[in-house]
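Support case: user asked for a sample of complex input and structure output to validate their parser. Sending the pair below.
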Amino acid sequence: MPTCYVTLRINFRRTAVAAAMLVVMGLASAVHAGGPCPFGCGDISGDAIVGDDDFARFADCVGQPPASSADCACSDLDGSGSIDLHDFALLSLVYGQTSDETPPSCTGEVGSVANLTAYRPQHGAAYFPFVKTAVGDADEDDPSLGPGVRINAPGDSDPVGEDDLIEMTLTVSPAGAQLALRRDHAALRVWTTRNKSGGTELVFTNDKTAALPIAPMQSQITLWVEWADAAAGVGSLFVEPVDAPVVKDAVTFHTFGHIVIALGGEGQVPVLPVDSNSGTFVVATDLYNAGLDVHMYDEDVVAADGSGSAYNEAVTAVRDRGVSDVAIFGYSHGGGSTYDLADRLDVNRAAIGVFEIRYTSYVDSVSNNSDIDTAMELRRPPSTGYHLNHYQHGTLFEDFFLDGGPVPNSNPPPTGQDVETTPWGATSTHFQVDDYIEVRDLMTTTLAIEVGP
Amino acid sequence: MTCFNYCHQTLRRADRAKSEVWTIAVLMFISLASVSVAQTAPPTFEKRDDFQALIAQYAAADDDANRRQLLNRIRALDASPHHEAIRQSIAFVADATSTREAMGAAQLIRELKGSDQSLVESVMPLLDATDAKLVETADNILAGLEHRSAERRPDLSVYRELLADGIRNHEPRPDALIMHMYDADPGYAMLTLMRVHQLREPDAIKEILWAEHVVSDAQWRQRYGFLPEDESDPQAVNQLAGLARHDAWWARMYVAAVMRQNASLRSDTDIQMLQQDADPLVRQEALSK
């Protein structure tokens, strides 16, 4: 290996040296005759940043024919047909940054940086009763763990107003960078307003938008992503330069095929921050943060005949959003309401559509014919595929004799778990049973198995 | 015509006229009296600190001896059938901020209440409360007596004797309770009130039964997908139009309630007519959203 190359490998961060090399070598603008490189100049690995990984791949390709591998095709930055020091000089100019150019048109000009961040779904006017939660970078392009989106086909009705679009922010550097969005699924539509106001839809031509409406001094814009097709699916949005297929970031959306309904106990109301003494809502929040479409309610919204806003949401999910899997869980009167809601959904199947109550759970379930009903709820929710049941058998006078009880065909088999038979739940009362980490963890894991992505 | 005959006929006409005037006067008096009775405002419920403190202690108590002592103190504040104690407990439930508070007060109510009808008597004044949450809780407790389920319509029979007693004793009409009944199930509410008002003529009874059956059938078909929810059923609409002009206020009330709850069966003409109805409760229902 030539000594000058070794010297450059040690000192590759020194852009002045790199620039001098360019002057010495001269710029060659021959077009490489091999396959096109889909990534930005120097971004051989395709992770949108030129770093050590790219350098290592480049080093392996030095002296190799560009057509010998995908990495080598991306290493011929100037398209000269050989991978040499001139390419290295260009690589050095963009090291640690990004380029909006693609081989063989690399000039060493540093490009813009862009980051897409999608959020978990809204409820009604905003995110309450959940906190606005970003999908992590590690998960955002995963077809299962990435952002879920409710199907919002034409004719969809939203009882609480349009809340099916997913908020997505685009952060760019430098401010005002000229970037576009590309999609790989026609169902994805993007708006600059959450309620799809007239004239605010971004137009895709051949699945790519024109330059996004980023003002010269603006470094962040908020967009709203809609899945506007009745069929379920997975689709991605990519942010790229307007005239180059250089992917700077991507987010992958998957449609929700489920709905999860959480019902608290009497006197428990969803609040922010979530009340740590409301175990049902703690579980609901964990599931929401993990990416499920969770709806949290005061059990009072479920009438004794199962009707109410929770029922309406479940019906519209099945009827209008392509949901086929329903999960319901509740504590105390919320458990009684779990039964009532499941019962009404099961009775009215003929008018609702095809769905399964895939999962239900009771925690010390109490019948909920009214606010003063104190009877144990011992009936298995109708048609549920998996029923989890936790209860305590009573602490005499400490909890007004309020108890759940064994429910046929429940888990842990055969009738659920009396937590007072465990070391951790031996002294449980009705008011504590929903707060045990063991109960909450089992609810979270079993529900995720039955309903999760 | 002889003078005698003329005078005789004149006197007879005068007597008849005088009789008619007296009849009109009596009827007007009765109407004014009934309106006056119906418009008497019910007493307003107020939370009492003495009750609320004891109820809070009861809900917080974790041993039986302490709880029984508190129960006795609450009973001592309010003689049997403990209507006021029950109302105060319901108010506590309405404002509860934890499961313990809510269920503790619920257990107290179960200790204090007697029969279901007695509980209805306890709850009824709360239906006129100014606190919307309290009214909602009162409605909820009544719903618990109606055995509501997805598979059956509410059972309103628990109110029948109470309403019948009220009519026999010439008591004010319990408008808030009646609104609750019609909100729960207009058809069963109307049938309950038909029995309360003791119709006797089979044809008159059949007219009501048939109308309720036709409308309920249309709603059943909508519920199970045989008829789109937004599609009108002409026979049901026709029956409602007939009842909208019925002599009985409880039949006209049924029409207003059905049309409020089911837009597909609504007739703007009939609703506008009912909004001008002679009965204030019918007008209120017709004006409700």
